[in-house]
Automatic annotation (TrEMBL):
The keyword Hydrolase applies. The keyword Hydrolase applies. It comes from the Bacteria. This is Inorganic triphosphatase. Keywords: Hydrolase. GO terms for molecular function: inorganic triphosphate phosphatase activity; metal ion binding. SMART domains: CYTH (SM01118). Pfam families: CYTH (PF01928). It comes from Pandoraea nosoerga. Its EC number is 3.6.1.25. PANTHER family: INORGANIC TRIPHOSPHATASE. The lineage of its organism: Bacteria, Pseudomonadati, Pseudomonadota, Betaproteobacteria, Burkholderiales. Residues 2-228 form the CYTH domain. It is an enzyme of class 3 (hydrolase).
Length: 231
C-alpha cells in the first residue's frame, strides 16, 4: 500500500491558452525542475448501480497511459478513504498494471491491505460498471529541492465525461497536481508538505487563478454524473 500525498490546484475551465502556456514556460525554467514530457491518459471509473464504492469513499479506476514512442499501458487503481484540506489530499492508493482493457479485481483485492476496502470489492466487485471518464493530457516535471524533497508536478488539461441517452456530456478539466514522492526522514517533520505549499505559492505568482481544490477527479465525475442523470 502507498499513501498518496498531493496538493491539487484547480484553474477555470475557460482559462485562455496563453495563460496556461505561461505556467508551462515558468515550470520549464524553474530551478530544480526537469521536464518529463507529456502523457495522454484515458481513465474509466467504475462503481455499482447504487454507487456502493462512492458511499464507502473508495474510487476504482482503469487507466490507459500513452506517450510518444512507447507502447501504451493499462493500469488499475483503487483509492480508499482519505482526507482533503485546502487542496492537500492524503489517501491510500493501490495501483497495478493489467494485461488489457479490463479490471483484474482478484489481483487488486489481494494487494489491498485495508480490510474494509477489500471487503467492499469482494462484495460488490462483480456488479461494477463504468460510470464516467476523465480524459486529459498530462505534462510532467520532476522537482528536486535542495534538501532532497522530490515532487512530481503535473499539469492536466482535458475533460470529465458521462455518456447518457446516446449523448456525451462533458465539462472541462484543468488542474495542477503537486505530488510528494520523497522527503527526508519520511517527512516526519512535515517538510515535504511545506514544500508542496511553497511550490503552490510560487505557481500562484504566475497564475493567481490557481486555488486549492478538495475535489478529486473521481468526485468531479460523480458530480457530473449526478447532474446528467439526476440520481
Amino acid at each position: 500500500m502507498a499513501i498518496e500525498r498531493e496538493l491539487k490546484l484547480a484553474l477555470p475551465g475557460d482559462l485562455p491558452d496563453q495563460r496556461a502556456d505561461a505556467l508551462i514556460a515558468h515550470l520549464d525554467q524553474l530551478p530544480g525542475a526537469q521536464a518529463r514530457g507529456e502523457r495522454h491518459l484515458v481513465n474509466r471509473y467504475f462503481d455499482t448501480a447504487t454507487l456502493a464504492l462512492a458511499r464507502a469513499k473508495a474510487a476504482l479506476r482503469l487507466r490507459y497511459v500513452a506517450r510518444d514512442g512507447h507502447a501504451g499501458q493499462w493500469l488499475q487503481t483503487l483509492k480508499s478513504v482519505g482526507e482533503a484540506r485546502d487542496g492537500l489530499h492524503v489517501r491510500h492508493e493501490w495501483e497495478q498494471p493489467v494485461k488489457g482493457e479490463a479490471l483484474d479485481l482478484p489481483q487488486l483485492i489481494a494487494a489491498c491491505d485495508v480490510p474494509a476496502t477489500a471487503d467492499i470489492l469482494r462484495r460488490e466487485g462483480a456488479s461494477v460498471v463504468a460510470q464516467f471518464e476523465t480524459n486529459f493530457v498530462r505534462r510532467l516535471w520532476r522537482y528536486v529541492a535542495g534538501d532532497g524533497t522530490v515532487v512530481e508536478i503535473a499539469f492536466d488539461r482535458g475533460e470529465v465525461a458521462v455518456e447518457a441517452d446516446g449523448r456525451r456530456h462533458t465539462e472541462p478539466l484543468l488542474e495542477v497536481e503537486l505530488e510528494l514522492l520523497d522527503a527526508p526522514d519520511g517527512d516526519r517533520a512535515g517538510q515535504g508538505e511545506r514544500m508542496l505549499h511553497a511550490l503552490a505559492e510560487d505557481l500562484r505568482r504566475v497564475l493567481p487563478e490557481l486555488h486549492g481544490d478538495d475535489l478529486s477527479k473521481a468526485q468531479r465525475g460523480y458530480r457530473l454524473r449526478q447532474r446528467v442523470l439526476g440520481d
